[in-house]
Amino acid sequence: MTDMPQILLFQTTDPVAVKRRLLRFRAAFLKLGPHCRFAAISYMPGAQSGVRRVVLDGIEIEHHVYGPDAMESLGYPLKGAARPFKLIPGNCDLPPLLFRRQQPQYEQYWVVEDDVEYSGEIHSLFAGLERRTGDLLAAHLARGYAAWTYASMLRASDPAVTPANSWLVFLTFYRISGAALDMIDRYYRAGWCAHSENAWATILKHGGMTVVDFGGAGEFVAEADRNKRYHGLANDGFEKSGSFGTMNIRLRAGRQKDMLWHPIKPPKAWLRQTYKRYVSIAKWYLAKFARVIGRSSGPAH
């Protein structure tokens, strides 16, 4: 066990609604030792930024709330600069960056979103990754490509960094070093911008840091990690299919043991997001079809 100070940030908009999961992740992480801390973090569009205290089953939770005023304080020329500010798409990385600025004493920052579940002993998940080297440990590490849905958001001061020469990584459960967060902050200050899933791995690799895919079956998974921690399809174009992605919205974790699952939603949210997902997919295909028709019906020569 290491005595390096580290913290688990549970990213949620409503700690009370996900109380059971929050407390399970908290208890499992704190078992790593006295060098570990826990907090909840949220972006709330109508809130004033500040630290609140939430009591769940008699346990006081530190809840860091970030509102629009916090986003104004970042000072990034492009990243998150559109107004009104929206967390989605691609800005879910900003609350952890804000937390790092306020509390830079930690060597490692773990982040888990509130719709992530693990079908095993959560403490074993943390313990198995705690000693791993790497500036960013995350899932679905893949090469970027121009046809990726949010590739057009990429802006880099280095002309060699294009969507085809960039990287993608999934950021719903991960561990990142304080030094890596500082590097991302510097790049954003210098005008770099992208969807978080495109920005983080691209920036860190550009800056000489290491990004580790901790499981699945992708191209960049070490043999010791292959098919562990989450089920994913090899080289799926960052579709993130399998147990841990965005394509399959579930009501509960699957039966396969010791696997990460995402997204896990309560019934109302499951119905709402499933509907939104299919509407979004339909709109995307309709727009693609319209572009194809537009090209084929262009002026004759």
Multimeric state of these chains?
single chain
**What is the structural class?**
alpha/beta
Task: Tell the overall outline.
Answer: globular
Distance between the termini: 71 Å
CA gyration radius, whole angstroms: 20 Å
CATH fold label of the largest domain: Spore Coat Polysaccharide Biosynthesis Protein SpsA, Chain A
What is the helix content?
25-40%
Q: What's the CATH C level of the largest domain?
A: Alpha Beta
Given as residue ranges, the uncertain stretches (5+ residues, pLDDT < 50) are: none
Tally of individual domains:
2
Strand order of the largest sheet: 3-4-2-1-5-8-7-9
Order of helices and strands: EHEEEHHEEHEEHHEEH
Query: In what range is the share of β-strand residues?
Result: 15-25%
Quickly count the helices. Answer: 7
Q: What is the CATH architecture term of the largest domain?
A: Alpha-Beta Complex
Mean pLDDT: 92
Find the count of extended strands (DSSP E, 2+ residues). Answer: 10
Sheet bearing the most strands, described?
A: 8 strands, mixed
